[in-house]
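Figure 3 (text version): structure tokens given as input.
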């Protein structure tokens, strides 16, 4: 039944949008605090890199953390481009909106994986 599939598509894209809206007020102050701490705390980049390596958390956890940092940045970048296209009056038909939503999610996942592997 195609109508059931359409309903799931709508909710998936809607949940991504809601998650970003809820996470932004938490992430922005957190990232800002981290950046401010990096400016005022003693030590330099190699010191903190050695500190993280001494925790022995393993490459899988570090990769997941890097993906967790890269995904919101990638998603917001690609979704911003999507919104700029809407500002130009492009992609307002519902099939185009759904397709571009999945393109944004796919590109965000691929970009985040690539960035996490760096």
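Below: residues designed for each position.
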């Amino acid at each position: 039944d195609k109508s059931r599939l359409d309903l799931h598509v709508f909710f998936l894209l809607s949940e991504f949008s809601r998650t970003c809206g809820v996470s932004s007020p938490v992430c922005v102050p957190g990232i800002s605090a981290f950046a401010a701490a990096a400016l005022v705390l003693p030590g330099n980049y190699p010191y903190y890199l050695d500190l993280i390596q001494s925790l022995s958390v393993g490459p899988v956890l570090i990769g997941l953390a890097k993906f967790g940092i890269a995904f919101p940045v990638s998603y917001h970048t690609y979704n911003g481009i999507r919104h700029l296209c809407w500002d130009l009056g492009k992609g307002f038909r519902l099939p185009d909106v759904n397709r571009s939503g999945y393109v944004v999610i796919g590109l965000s996942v691929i970009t985040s994986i690539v960035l996490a592997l760096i």
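The radius of gyration is 18 Å.
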